[in-house]
Each structure stands twice: as structure tokens, then as C-alpha cells.
């Protein structure tokens, strides 16, 4: 009898059927096909609206932020509320005290001399109150008062105290400008005077004790104000009358900086070819090439404020000159005239001999310099006072007043 394979008995009829797909039209209570398509389109539109809603809210918030920029209404240099608080707490600077009340138990404030002080932002403190903010015109008036009646006053001394007062009040002016997002000509006028004041202070107070003057803090604020000023120039298509001056000052102050050099090279050709900027570029190139003789020679063509911006690099230039000469003229039989070296260093003969002594460069009794690369030694920190070697800058000040220098009338 024939045996049947069990596998043959498991035919298609014994296979498990796949679940039957039911079309949309066969489903119970299913909407018509056109209505289904309409529902999908409405759902997609809802999703698009949900995605666009955050974008619209951001735009609305941005417009609302622009509309709510605070505008100052204080028409005095110091808000009345702050004036009263500082008077009752005996926190008035003696530059702000009413004449005749200095020896009183509680000196009174002079509303015509009191200036809003800088205050650090604090939690819960409202710094956007219009009554405490000064509009741009009042801010410019305040800066002019600080320059003419405080910084340029011959009766107020010492100048380190004058600097501390003006520096703090200028920070307060900058704070009001930032809160109100001040721009335009008033902003440029304020920043220009601030930069000139800080550059002049960096020269005049050079070498003062750190408790009275910190050059790093001064440098930080000078760089911030200078950067803001250059940005203001960049946003205007027309050339500002003082743009050439401050572009050159920025390069001289940051001599050798790749960033400052690149900024100048990206200026329009008509501005880059201006005499002051071309001179600053020549000095910068000589400095990068370590040619101190050319740097010092070109520096004699600068005006007073430009020399103030450059003065912090003069010590490095003179040090490089003595180092190069110590290698180039290193010989026992070589004698270099001291008066000729003084001309190259832009110093008088006694200061030149003193500078050589600081770097262990031998000066003979017959006023000749004996260079030796083995004898050249870096002076100890604090022994070389930059202020002693400011003659190239001091000669250019002559009869210039502080007010004319800071206002740009020099």
C-alpha cells in the first residue's frame, strides 16, 4: 500500500491565512473619502499654525522690547532721589558738597555740582526707572562739566583724586547710555571725550601707586569705549570729522596688535590713506619689524595725544634698541658716542646714561658707550620707572590745557 508523505498533506488549505486588509471605505462609520482628506488638511494646517506660533511670539516679544526701551527724564546731572540718599548717608564726594557746609555734621549737596555715581547692578534693583536716567543731551552736558570744571581745573588736586572722581562718573554715564541704547552724534561725542580722557590719564598717572591708579583697569575701560566708538563709526556711511584721529589713536595704543592692524587694513582706501593713519601704520610696521630707531624717529612727528597713546611702548622700543646695539657693537675696542645714542633714544644725555646703567651697559668716563652682549641684563621689576623717560611726550604738551586736549581742540 502506498505511503503518503506527511508533508504533502500539509497543503495550502492548512496554511495560516494572513489577516485581511480592510479598506477605508469598508470600515464601519467611516467618513466619506473627500471628508477624510479635508480633515487631514485641516490637521496639517493646525500643525503649521502651532509651529509658527512660537516664531510669531518671538517677533512680538522683540517688537515689544524695542518699544519698551527706557528713556530718561532726569534733567539734572544727579537724580534727586540719589542726591538725597547720598546726602543723608554722608556719601557725598567733597567735589559735590555745597560751599560753606563742608564742616557741618551732615554736609549739604550742591545740585549744580553733584553727579550721578556708578552703581553695580543688583538683584531686585530697578535700573530702568526713567526718573533716574539722564537723556543723551544731559549726559553730554555732564561729560563736559566733568572735563571743564573737574579734570581741567587747576584748583583741584591731587590729580589722582580728580581722576578717580571723573572715572567713576564717566562709568555712570556709560551705564545710562547702555540702558537707553543711546546712539547717534551724542553717543559719538561722549565716547570721543571719554577715550581722550582715558588716554591722557594713562600718560599723566603712569607710575603712580596701584592704590591710586590701576593701569589695567584704565586699559580695560579704554578698550571698551574705543571699541564702541569704532563700531559707531562703522554704522555710519559718511566719514565722521574725528574718525581719522581715533582710528590712528586706536592703532598707536594697540601697537603691534594683529587685530588692530587688520581693522585698519579693512578701512576704506580714502580713510586709510589719511595722513594720521598712514603715519600710525608706518610706526606699527617699524614696531613689528623690531626697528626701534625708526619707531622713535617717526614718533617725533606725532601730536601730544598720539604720543600719550604711544608712550607705553617707548620702554620696549628703547630696550630693543639697547639689546640690538649690544649685539651689533659688542667689541672691546668699539666705542659709541653717548650723545649720539641719546639722540637715537630721544632722551637727554643724563637720562641716557641712567638707562644704560639700568641694563648694565657700560658708559665710560669720556662719554662713550661700550656695548657687550654678555653684559646686557634685564633690570629688576620696579627699578625702571617709565615716567622718567617721558621727555618725548612732555615736550609736545607745551601750553596745551587739559580741557583743550580732551575736547579735541589741541
From TrEMBL:
Residues 13-25 have a biased composition (Basic residues). GO terms for cellular component: centrosome; nucleus; spindle. Residues 26-69, 102-119 have a biased composition (Basic and acidic residues). Signal peptide: none annotated. Residues 77-364 form the SAC3/GANP/THP3 conserved domain. One of its GO terms (biological process) is spindle assembly. InterPro entries: SAC3/GANP/THP3, SAC3/GANP/THP3_conserved. Residues 1-73, 102-130 are annotated as: Disordered. It comes from the Eukaryota. This is SAC3 domain-containing protein 1 isoform X1. It comes from Lates calcarifer (Barramundi).
Amino acid at each position: 500500500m502506498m505511503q503518503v508523505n506527511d508533508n504533502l498533506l500539509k497543503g495550502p488549505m492548512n496554511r495560516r491565512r494572513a489577516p485581511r486588509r480592510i479598506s477605508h471605505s469598508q470600515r464601519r462609520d467611516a467618513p466619506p473619502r473627500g471628508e477624510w482628506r479635508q480633515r487631514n488638511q485641516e490637521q496639517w494646517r493646525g500643525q503649521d499654525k502651532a509651529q509658527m506660533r512660537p516664531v510669531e511670539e518671538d517677533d512680538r516679544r522683540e517688537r515689544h522690547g524695542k518699544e519698551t526701551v527706557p528713556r530718561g527724564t532726569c534733567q539734572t546731572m544727579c537724580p534727586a532721589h540719589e542726591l538725597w540718599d547720598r546726602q543723608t548717608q554722608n556719601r557725598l564726594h567733597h567735589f559735590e558738597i555745597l560751599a560753606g557746609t563742608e564742616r557741618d555734621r551732615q554736609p549739604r549737596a550742591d545740585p549744580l555740582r553733584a553727579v550721578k555715581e556708578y552703581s553695580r547692578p543688583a538683584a531686585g534693583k530697578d535700573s530702568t526707572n526713567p526718573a533716574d536716567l539722564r537723556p543723551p543731551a544731559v549726559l553730554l552736558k555732564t561729560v563736559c562739566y566733568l572735563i571743564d570744571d573737574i579734570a581741567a581745573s587747576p584748583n583741584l588736586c591731587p590729580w589722582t583724586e580728580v581722576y578717580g572722581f571723573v572715572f567713576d562718573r564717566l562709568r555712570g554715564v556709560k551705564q545710562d547710555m547702555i540702558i537707553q541704547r543711546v546712539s547717534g552724534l551724542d553717543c559719538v561725542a561722549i565716547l570721543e571725550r571719554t577715550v581722550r580722557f582715558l588716554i591722557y590719564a594713562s600718560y599723566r598717572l603712569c607710575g603712580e601707586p596701584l592704590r591710586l591708579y590701576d593701569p589695567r583697569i584704565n586699559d580695560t575701560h579704554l578698550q571698551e569705549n574705543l571699541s564702541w566708538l569704532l563700531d559707531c563709526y562703522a554704522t555710519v556711511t559718511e566719514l565722521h570729522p574725528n574718525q581719522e584721529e581715533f582710528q590712528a589713536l586706536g592703532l598707536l595704543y594697540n601697537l603691534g596688535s594683529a587685530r588692530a592692524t587688520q581693522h585698519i587694513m579693512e578701512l576704506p582706501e580714502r580713510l586709510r590713506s589719511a595722513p594720521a593713519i598712514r603715519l600710525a601704520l608706518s610706526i606699527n610696521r617699524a614696531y613689528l619689524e623690531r626697528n626701534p630707531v625708526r619707531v622713535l624717529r617717526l614718533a617725533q612727528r606725532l601730536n601730544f595725544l598720539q604720543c600719550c597713546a604711544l608712550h607705553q611702548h617707548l620702554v620696549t622700543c628703547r630696550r630693543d634698541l639697547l639689546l640690538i646695539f649690544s649685539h651689533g657693537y659688542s667689541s672691546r675696542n668699539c666705542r659709541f658716542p653717548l650723545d649720539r645714542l641719546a639722540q637715537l633714544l630721544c632722551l637727554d644725555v643724563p637720562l641716557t646714561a641712567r638707562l644704560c646703567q639700568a641694563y648694565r651697559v657700560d658708559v665710560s668716563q669720556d662719554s662713550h658707550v661700550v656695548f657687550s652682549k654678555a653684559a646686557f641684563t634685564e633690570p629688576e621689576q620696579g627699578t625702571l620707572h617709565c615716567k622718567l623717560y617721558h621727555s618725548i611726550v612732555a615736550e609736545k604738551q607745551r601750553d596745551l590745557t587739559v580741557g583743550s586736549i580732551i575736547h579735541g581742540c589741541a
